[in-house]
């Protein structure tokens, strides 16, 4: 595998070799979550020796590690190569050896673009505005949008529809004249009536629960200025991360 011009060995991990026959649903208890706001699993990325840092008593955590996920995805790819689904994919994206590079990545961005390139429309509008928005602020706004959209429509079912104008009209912003943002102050002002109208809800099922999630998000943003600064925006996390990463010649600028 080659990344940023550096050749790296491909890692192959046989997860099954580390999971005994006695592996049952009782064993699938994830370890207690860390109290750190940026909870993450740490392991030796040089040797990728998962068995050395994750004991068998934490099999669930082990199976969620990146090398094992890669190995399992490899198995899935091998099966797909033998089935009709690969032929269907090649029909849509080409049959040459580079067809996989043309398949759009799956993610929250793709959900928002279902039926129309909504996010790209916003990016183009910000770039072509009378006062063009720099890429740093575009990144903040995009993160704001993606985070709040997850809390709004995950598992929403068919009782409401997402109104895509909510973000553009400043529904989540607490700063007058700056609609394209999400912040703690704006989230605190959301009411059941406003949410129901904006979401075009045919029933009130789940509306209060969604509002509670947004309130919790606002509280977390406000309580952690180290990560989200004083204005409490999800997108401010990008500034925190950039401040923690030293400049490197291998880091190339990426257009948002």
Give me a quick take on this structure.
This protein is mainly alpha-helical and 256 residues long. It is 45% helix and 2% strand.
What is the strand tally? 2
Please state roughly what percent of the residues sit in beta strands, choosing from under 5%, 5-15%, 15-25%, 25-35%, 35-45% or over 45%.
under 5%
Specify the number of helices: 13
How many domain regions? 2
Q: What is the 3D shape?
A: globular
Order of helices and strands: EEHHHHHHHHHHHHH
CA distance, first residue to last residue = 24 Å
Chart the SSEs and their pairings.
Blueprint (H helix, E strand, L loop, with lengths): L1 E2 L2 E2 L42 H4 L5 H5 L2 H16 L2 H10 L14 H5 L5 H10 L7 H19 L11 H4 L15 H5 L3 H7 L8 H17 L1 H4 L8 H8 L12
Pfam family, one: DUF1688
InterPro entries: DUF1688
Describe the fold and architecture.
- The chain has 256 residues and is mainly alpha-helical.
- The chain folds into 2 domains: 2-103, no CATH class; 109-244, no CATH class.
- The protein is built from 13 helices and 2 strands, in the order ββααααααααααααα.
- Strands 1-2 form a two-stranded antiparallel ribbon.
- It is globular, with a radius of gyration of 22 Å.
- The model is unreliable at 1-47 and 250-256 (pLDDT under 50).
- InterPro entries: DUF1688.
């Amino acid at each position: 595998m080659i990344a940023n011009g550096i050749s790296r060995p491909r890692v192959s991990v046989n997860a099954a070799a580390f999971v005994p026959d006695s592996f049952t649903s009782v064993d699938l208890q994830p370890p207690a979550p860390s109290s750190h706001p940026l909870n993450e699993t740490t392991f030796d990325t040089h040797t990728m020796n998962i068995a050395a840092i994750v004991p068998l008593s934490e099999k669930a955590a082990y199976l969620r590690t990146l090398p094992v996920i890669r190995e399992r995805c490899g198995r899935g790819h091998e099966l797909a190569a033998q089935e009709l689904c690969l032929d269907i994919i090649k029909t849509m994206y080409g049959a040459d050896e580079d067809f996989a590079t043309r398949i759009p990545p799956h993610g929250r961005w793709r959900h928002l673009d279902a039926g129309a390139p909504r996010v790209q429309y916003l990016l183009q509008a910000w770039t072509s505005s009378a006062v063009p928005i720099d890429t740093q602020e575009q990144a903040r706004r995009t993160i704001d949008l993606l985070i709040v959209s997850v809390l709004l429509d995950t598992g929403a079912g068919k009782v409401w529809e997402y109104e895509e104008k909510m973000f553009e009209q400043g529904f989540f912003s607490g700063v007058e004249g700056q609609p394209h943002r999400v912040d703690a102050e704006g989230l605190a002002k959301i009411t059941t009536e406003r949410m129901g109208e904006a979401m075009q809800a045919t029933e009130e099922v789940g509306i209060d629960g969604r509002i509670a999630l947004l309130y919790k998000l606002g509280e977390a943003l406000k309580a952690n200025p180290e990560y989200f600064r004083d204005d409490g925006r999800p997108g401010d996390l990008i500034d925190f991360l950039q401040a923690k990463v030293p400049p490197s010649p291998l880091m190339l600028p990426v257009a948002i």
